[in-house]
């Protein structure tokens, strides 16, 4: 079972892992990050709670932590901390030949990520896939939150724009109250497939439709032949 520690910092230009593998996500050259975009993203993240509420919750969160994975509140109001994501993949995903012994398909594989309050669900999914050198599109995967209430377990898929660390802060550090799970999209969610895959599905459907039409034509041709023979027998001169 893997429990790789990962770091995904939004206030740095690079997203990086500090165990076994490393990857870097840099802004494309010639297209520097817009300061206005950062401001808007920060506003969106902190629209849930005021700065004083965040400060109070971070303090209470750290008092309840038992595994030393505390949160840190920065002077700009952005806080950083840790989330644990359990891998629950039904099938082995496509990985790079250089992926080595990493096994993202292992049931129950747990990963600890160090992230910022500005990091979104989409960024967390991308980071996990890059850690395991998964070559499939992040759109094929979804992050779920698992809640435990009154001996019942509820799983809810998170949207790509939600912020996992905010959910962790509000729920507290106990994973038996809230935990995160990475899964494949449910069957039938076509947006999870790439354009070439969808085009291939269409070709298969066209082929099956053509085969069904040919079978139908053969059946009706046989019926027509039998009917014509019956008519010839009826009108056969005595």
UniProtKB/TrEMBL annotation:
Residues 26-48 are annotated as: Disordered. InterPro entries: RA_dom (IPR000159), RASSF1-6 (IPR033614), SARAH_dom (IPR011524), Ubiquitin-like_domsf (IPR029071). Residues 187-234 form the SARAH domain. It is found in: Cytoplasm, Cytoskeleton. Residues 38-48 have a biased composition (Basic and acidic residues). Residues 206-233 form a coiled coil. One of its GO terms (cellular component) is microtubule. Residues 79-187 form the Ras-associating domain. SUPFAM superfamilies: Ubiquitin-like. SMART domains: RA. GO terms for biological process: signal transduction. Keywords: Acetylation, Coiled coil, Cytoplasm, Cytoskeleton, Microtubule. This is Ras association domain-containing protein 3.
